[in-house]
Amino acid sequence: MRFRKSIKIAKGVRVNIGKKGVSSVSLGGKGLTLNASGKGIRATASIPGSGLSRSEMIYKSGNAQNPQPTELQNSSSINVKGKRSVSFLLGVGIFLIPYIFAWFTLRKGHSVLSRVVSFGWLSWLIFSITQRP
Q: Is the pTM above the cut of 0.70?
């Protein structure tokens, strides 16, 4: 039997309770959520209302269980040389919503070029929005 209850503490802060007590804490809301649990910290970014989302473990704690082989195969697109390519969906996310998706290029394996391009695009958008005619 499973038990799960989510309690809203403040705007954007939730405590998730399971059978054995507090299982995790979630910060954020629609668009971007960080979830901290015993397994580690998971970041989830989405485009609200579209059904598109991306979830990534950004930190794994020492007591987290090892993922199954099928999870390892599907979790990343790292090539033989240890480099991670920017997927099509990540590229679209960086172009449309760089405030969220540019940060995904900081994961291990992305090239300096992909980081410079994504954060350059983010910087240019912020600069162009803040300039008044």
A: no
Q: Give the domain range for residue 30.
A: 1-63
Phi (first) and psi of residue 2, to 5 degrees: -115, 150
* Whether 53 and 88 share a structural domain: no
Q: Report if residue 17 sits inside a domain.
A: yes
Of 75, 69, 61, whose CA–CA distance to 108 is shortest? Answer: 75
pLDDT digits (tens, 9 = 90+) for 37-73: 888 888 888 888 888 888 888 888 765 555 544 443 4
Edge-to-edge strand list for the sheet holding 21-29: 4-10, 13-18, 21-29, 32-37, 40-47, 52-60
- Token pair listed for 20: 């054995």
Same domain, 50 and 1: yes
Number of domains in the chain: 2
- H-run or E-run covering 10: strand 4-10
Same-domain pairing of 58 and 77: no
Three-state DSSP state, 46: strand
